[in-house]
Amino acid sequence: AVKASGPGQWAFFDRSMTENALVRLRTEASLRSAIEKGQFVLHYQPKLDLRSNRISGCEALIRWDLNGDLVPPGRFISIAEETGMIYDIGLWVLREACQAQRRWRRHAGAVPIAINVSVRQLKDERFIDDFLDIIQASGADPELLEVEVTESALMSSIEVSAHLLREMRSHGVRLSIDDFGTGYSSLAYLKNLPIDILKIDRSFVSDLPEESSIPRMIIGLAGQMGLRTVAEGIETEGQLAWLRDNGCDMIQGFLIEKPLPEADFLRFVDAYRTARAFPSAS
Ligand code: C2E
Ligand code: MG
Ligand code: MG
Ligand code: MG
Fold first, then answer.
1. Which ligand is nearest to the CA of 95?
2. I need a surface site. Which of 106, 130, 131, 279 has the fewest CB within 10 A?
3. Cα 232 to averaged position of ligand 1 atoms, centre (Å)
4. DSSP state of 112
């Protein structure tokens, strides 16, 4: 088949490889300059507490601001991870979240902010010092900061993570396992880590209410272990009803609100407080 495809085919193959490599190099170069210039923004997605019916926090999600076009994390986080640039991006995210928390103190009061942390960041030996320095220098309250680490990231460096997570936890930072249930891991690690929250992966939530065995199992496990649960990616009233009836603590998803720029997020929090219902539903 290789021979039959002929030299032209190979030339074509080579050219497209080169093009991919070029696109990638260009992306890397402009990502590097974005880091220098701080061309990112955080959007904030609210989390709703199902018992109190209040906004109990939010998740900060990064976007790359490419001359006004917002590039979603799915398009650059993996490149940033492979090149190590995620380290500096992660510090930017933490700094920005800490500053937001301080800004909001005056306006919206205490709204905990969760940030996503990659395994590449955790594995860097500078991480814990840089992390704690930024929190301290910003004057942010570590109790209002939450770190989301995916289950698969955690599994890939369990020894490193256990130590770091304990250190962060001892300073009051809350820890949640993101995309829980997708890591194909043994559950034994859970009892050795200072985890506060399990986030039920969107892939399980989207099967609700018809297929509920995995969310039921995760909520049961969390209850037994004294952990709280957040279900991510709620899009329908049916999913909401099932989660409410079955003891899930918090939900996050487009049904409540999508990730919003800071000003819009704060308006949402205000409107929600006043209406005590989804502003969009009224
Ligand atoms: P994640 O941490 O699991 O974040 C949830 C993703 O689901 C977000 O996508 C969010 O916009 C999306 N989402 C929320 N509700 C719904 C819903 O109801 N339906 C659907 N279809 N999607 C929903 P986003 O912002 O594109 O982020 C994707 C992933 O990129 C995140 O997944 C996280 O793993 C990563 N990421 C985002 N920000 C950062 C960051 O600052 N640092 C690092 N290391 N990773 C980040
Ligand atoms: Mg997350
Ligand atoms: Mg998630
Ligand atoms: Mg996810």
1. 1
2. 106
3. 9
4. -
For residues 10 and 16, give the distance between their C-alpha atoms in angstroms, rounded to a whole number: 10
Of all atoms in ligand 1, which is nearest to the CA of residue 255?
18
Mutation test of ligand 1: which of 42, 47, 61, 62 has the most ligand atoms closer than 8 Å to its C-beta?
61
- Residue 279's pLDDT band, with cuts at 50, 70 and 90, is low
pLDDT at position 25: 85
Q: Cis peptide leading into 209, omega within 30 of 0?
A: yes
Question: What's the pLDDT at 76?
Answer: 94
DSSP single-letter state for residue 17: H
Contact 251, 52 (CB under 8 A): no
> DSSP state, 261?
-
Where are any strands of DSSP class E within the chain? 40-49, 54-66, 69-71, 113-116, 145-150, 174-180, 197-200, 228-232, 250-252
- Which atom of ligand 1 lies at the shortest distance from residue 148's CA? 2
Q: For residue 58, is pLDDT > 90?
A: yes
Residue nearest to atom 33 of ligand 1 (CA): 116
158, two tokens? 């369990």
Work out which ligand 1 atom sits closest to the CA atom of 252. 15
Neighbours of 68 (CB within 10 A): 5
pLDDT at 110: 84
Q: Is 13 in the pocket of ligand 1 (CB under 6 A)?
A: no
Strand partners, 146: 114, 174
Cα–ligand 2 centroid distance for 237 (angstroms): 22
